[in-house]
Structure formats: C-alpha cells, structure tokens
Amino acid sequence: xxxxxxxxxxxxxxxxxxxxxxxxxxxxxxxxxxxxxxxxxxxxxxxxxxxxxxxxxxxxxxxxxxxxxxxxxxxxxxxxxxxxxxxxxxxxxxxxxxxxxxxxxxxxxxxxxxxxxxxxxxxxxxxxxxxxxxxxxxxxxxxxxxxxxxxxxxxxxxxxxxxxxxxxxxxxxxxxxxxxxxxxxxxxxxxxxxxxxxxxxxxxxxxxxxxxxxxxxxxxxxxxxxxxxxxxxxxxxxxxxxxxxxxxxxxxxxxxxxxxxxxxxxxxxxxxxxxxxxxxxxxxxxxxxxxxxxxxxxxxxxxxxxxxxxxxxxxxxxxxxxxxxxxxxxxxxxxxxxxxxxxxxxxxxxxxxxxxxx
Length: 358
Description:
Blueprint: E1 6-10, H1 40-48, E2 57-62, H2 66-72, E3 81-84, H3 89-104, E4 109-114, E5 118-119, H4 122-135, E6 142-147, E7 158-161, E8 170-177, H5 182-191, E9 194-204, H6 205-215, H7 217-224, H8 235-245, H9 251-256, E10 262-267, E11 271-272, H10 277-283, E12 292-294, E13 296-300, E14 306-308, E15 314-318, E16 323-328, E17 331-336, H11 343-353
Parallel strand pairs: 1-2, 1-4, 2-3, 6-10, 12-14, 13-15, 14-16
Antiparallel strand pairs: 4-9, 5-11, 6-9, 7-8, 7-9, 8-10, 16-17
C-alpha cells in the first residue's frame, strides 16, 4: 500500500453555474447530474479506487457539507473528511490536505482532483495517472495533467509545454494562460503545443511542501504549525484559526505559474470539467434538433436547447433556439444556454429575493 498514492478530492465549491439545480445546500458535486445513480463526488471516488485504498482518500470540503460527504462516502473515517471554515481557494485547500498527509506519511505521493469532473475513458485515465505518479518520483517535480484540446475553448485555462525527448511523457511547462479570448484560443489550438489545464495534480508531498515554502511562505509557515495538531482533538480549532490568517489564492497562481519545476503529462481520456449547463449539453444525448430533453415536453420549432423539468409537469415550448429551461424546486430559469457568465448575477439577485432561492 505504501506505493499507492493518497487521493485528495476538492469538494467545497458551490456550483453556481448549475443553479438552480445546484443549490448552496446541495451543490453539483453531490448531485447525480449524469443520471448514473452516483453523484459526481461518488463517481470521482469510484474512479480512484482503482489505484488507492479507502484509507488513502482525503476529501476537503466546506464545513456546511460535512454531513453530505459522510452520507455519500460512508467508507471514509471522519478524520478523512477535512472541514474548511471559510472558502480560501485551492492553495489553502491543498495545503491543508498536503501538510496533514505529510505529517502522517513523509514519503507520501498525492493526486489532487476536483470532485466534479467527467472522465469517459477511465482505463486510459488510470494509465495517465500511473505515468504521472511515476514522473512525480523525481525530487521537486510538480506534475499537472493537460488535456489535448479539440476546439478553441475560452472557458478553460491553457498550458504551453516544451517538446520532450526520448519519449519521456513528462514535458516541461513553459507558460500558463487563464481563459483566453476566442482569437487566442484558436491560435493555441493551431500551434499544437498547448493543452487544457485539467486542474488535476500529482506530487510527492515533500516536493509540494518545498514549493509552498518557496512560493507561498506565509501559507507554509501557518500550516507548519499544524503538525502538532493534525490527527488530534485540537486540529479543527487550529484550522479555524489558520483559515482566518491565510490569503485567498489559487494553486495555479500561487505556485504552478511561479515554479520552474512544473511538468505536464498529456491526457486524452474523454475529459470535461462539467463547468456549466452548456458543457453538459455537449455531452448528453440529443434529439434530431440538438435538444437535450429531460422533461415531459412538446417542442415546436425549437433547437439547440436544454430542457430539464419535473416529469409531473408538461412543458410546451415553441420557437426557442439555444436556450436553457430548468425548473428546480422553487425556481424556474429561462435563459440563453451559453450565458453562464451571467449566473453570478442571477444567483446574487435571487439571494436578495430570499435565501430559499439559492
């Protein structure tokens, strides 16, 4: 078991771009969005059970979702579900898990993954993970997984890499670019040396802690103090204090974009970050007019839409193109399918109408 990696699942997001189906009380990672009978969190756990034992998982989540994680992953001990008192972005989330795991096992290797991604070709995914674990053995290396792009997507970050030699799968990273314009995304696609940033990382715990010390020393200093608390009754009190002192910064900005020890392993395994209704529309089965229909519906002159309604209601739609129609509990949403940039406004204004709407 020593050779197997620890799996850190980040499950604290609120999933606002899937509102109103995703709510503050039950965000998208806890929903069976794909109709498989398992939530996205459970599917992520199932996927990584191929390469890790249940005792090697850590789920980092907001304190409000502790019960949901325990309900959905009863295989985990309570000490494996890490409670964040505040949302402080991915660097802090990962630091908490990494420093705790390092205290338990200084030789540990870590895979860090979001809880809400879709992987269609799981055998190819596991092969890629095994390559990444092997590449992370080199001291100091920070490994990220890059996805070969098939379109000029503006909603993802991009990684540019340098060509390797001797068939080595670990390629040196040259640049990171966050969510480019469509023109730049097309240039990236044409160049052939850019991949999508999946947000999946592989490290030796020691390599990551060294990177924190070098690039985010304030976070490193705070979590170093946690070594005497991890696994003890004082752990949560320490974390509650620590989270008030650290800054809000992503792991990409805080470490990966600054370090000269970052390598990418290329992956091609049917990946989607399931970041929006639009991305889900691309994946779901469609009718002859490119509509995803998860409803009891009558459609007339309607195409490129996503309709998700309770089946006990009949919905009749005429003359719509590229729209999302979703009724979830007490909210009916009708908007442009690709309008996820407006969802923050939708959610913020709905909250003013009442907490029950978000």
